[in-house]
């Protein structure tokens, strides 16, 4: 048996922002026997998950499910609607936006990378501490009088920083410029944790994945489509075969796929959709906001800056914490993992060593988050970081006051 760690008892605290902790209910569903993917039971399962996932994307249009990680769904989105050499306007919010831009280059597209310039007083790039500035997109599109830009690509919840972006504002910017570019959005880590409205926000392709808000293991990913995106895919010239939407959408009408889908992960998806829709999406989003506020109250009590510099766009999914100058965030993470069996997210790309990420998504509750805060607080103290106050006390205060308020409401 593979020895995963040296902690024989208790549960590992998987507090990275994806893969998120998977509820037992979902793990049990995934453990059921694999069935014939051409048989009658499978068609019912397929129809169920395809209908349910549309509710989560808040769309009436098709959602394509791939047996791939989120990166595959990025490629699928571009391959379906782009032609070689197409200009795409992308926005630098952090590491994931940067990786998507690199992929566009590798696929032979001509991405232009917008963003805020310069570094701020933490020494970190400003663009990695703020969300998408829709006015920069509008100004750039207005200059594009020949309408050469074929798509605007943005990340909804930038998992490397803990900053969200206002997708409706990006749609308004595109419309205000009177520009026909498609709007493509990576909500790989936002979907099912942060409010997301594919149709209402006028998104043409939304990309998502299984291992973040949907609380599944990694291995399936999604493209939510718009009629305009489907139309574009009929004439787009990048080679596409495995990723091509047309055959999949066609076969999905009866609940099947053109190839072998990821049967057991689809059992998990059916269970995840039941859990999310039973709770209600507004309740799910409010729960993540409440968790995020509790974790931020702890960070504030420690006297440390969050990676997100704009209070209006803090992520409900994760919180990035900047360590004091001279404190290696990865050494801190290693210490916390060794001593307390708690995994935190690393600083990615330009943030390496300067920050760590605390995930508040997946199979969590108020007490698991207080425990995470306690693990971080102990680790910070062991690393010699001078703290302004107790984050644990602040988080407990936050969660207790909410619980009290809820009890009062229910009693009324
Ligand atoms: C996790 C993530 C990805 C990458 O997804 P993989 O499943 O690792 O391929 C891309 N974008 C964002 C915003 C993510 O959170």
UniProtKB/TrEMBL annotation:
Looking up SUPFAM superfamilies in the UniProt record yields: PLP-dependent transferases
Q: Name one GO molecular function term.
A: L-serine-glyoxylate transaminase activity
Query: Which EC class, in a word?
Result: transferase
Q: What are the record keywords, sorted?
A: Aminotransferase, Pyridoxal phosphate, Transferase
Extract the InterPro entries matched here: Aminotrans_V_dom (IPR000192), PyrdxlP-dep_Trfase (IPR015424), PyrdxlP-dep_Trfase_major (IPR015421), PyrdxlP-dep_Trfase_small (IPR015422), SP_NH2Trfase/AEP_transaminase (IPR024169)
- EC no. given is 2.6.1.44, 2.6.1.45, 2.6.1.51
Q: Where is the Aminotransferase class V domain?
A: 51-307
Q: Which cofactor does it need?
A: pyridoxal 5'-phosphate
Q: Where is the signal peptide?
A: none
Give one Pfam hit by family name. Answer: Aminotran_5
| Family indicated by similarity | Belongs to the class-V pyridoxal-phosphate-dependent aminotransferase family.
**What protein does this entry describe?**
Alanine-glyoxylate transaminase/serine-glyoxylate transaminase/serine-pyruvate transaminase
């Amino acid at each position: 048996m593979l020895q995963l760690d040296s902690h024989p008892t208790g549960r590992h605290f998987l507090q990275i922002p994806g893969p998120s902790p998977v509820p037992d209910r979902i793990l049990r569903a995934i453990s059921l026997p694999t069935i014939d993917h051409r048989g009658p039971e499978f068609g019912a399962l397929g129809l169920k998950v395809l209908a349910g996932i549309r509710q989560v994307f808040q769309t009436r249009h098709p959602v394509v499910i791939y047996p791939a990680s989120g990166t595959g769904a990025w490629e699928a989105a571009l391959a379906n609607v782009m032609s070689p050499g197409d200009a795409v306007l992308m926005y630098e919010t952090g590491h994931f936006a940067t990786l998507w831009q690199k992929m566009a280059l590798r696929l032979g597209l001509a991405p232009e990378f917008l963003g805020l310039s310069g570094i701020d007083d933490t020494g970190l790039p400003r663009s990695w501490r703020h969300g998408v500035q829709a006015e920069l997109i509008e100004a750039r599109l207005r200059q594009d009088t020949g309408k050469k830009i074929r798509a605007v690509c943005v990340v909804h919840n930038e998992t490397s920083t803990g900053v969200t972006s206002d997708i409706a504002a990006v749609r308004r910017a595109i419309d205000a410029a009177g520009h026909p570019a498609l709007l493509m959005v990576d909500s790989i880590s936002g979907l099912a944790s942060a409010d997301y409205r594919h149709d209402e926000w006028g998104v043409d392709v939304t990309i998502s994945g299984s291992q973040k808000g949907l609380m599944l293991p990694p291995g399936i990913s999604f493209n939510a489509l718009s009629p305009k995106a489907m139309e574009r895919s009929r004439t787009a010239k990048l080679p596409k075969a495995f990723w091509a939407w047309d055959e999949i959408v066609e076969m999905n009408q009866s609940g099947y796929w053109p190839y072998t889908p990821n049967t057991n992960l689809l059992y998990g998806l059916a269970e995840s959709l039941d859990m999310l829709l039973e709770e209600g999406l507004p309740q799910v989003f409010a729960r993540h906001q409440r968790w995020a506020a509790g974790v931020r109250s702890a960070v504030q009590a420690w006297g440390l800056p969050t990676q997100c510099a704009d209070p209006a766009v803090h992520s409900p999914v994760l919180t990035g914490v900047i360590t004091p100058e001279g404190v290696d965030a990865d050494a801190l993470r290693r210490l916390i993992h060794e001593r307390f069996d708690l995994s935190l997210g690393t600083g990615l790309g330009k943030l390496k060593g300067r920050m760590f990420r605390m995930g508040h998504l997946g199979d969590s509750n108020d007490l698991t988050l207080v425990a995470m805060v306690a693990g971080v607080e102990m680790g910070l103290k062991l690393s010699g970081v001078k703290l302004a106050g107790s984050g644990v006390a602040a988080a407990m205060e936050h969660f207790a006051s909410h619980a009290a308020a809820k009890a009062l409401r229910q009693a009324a």
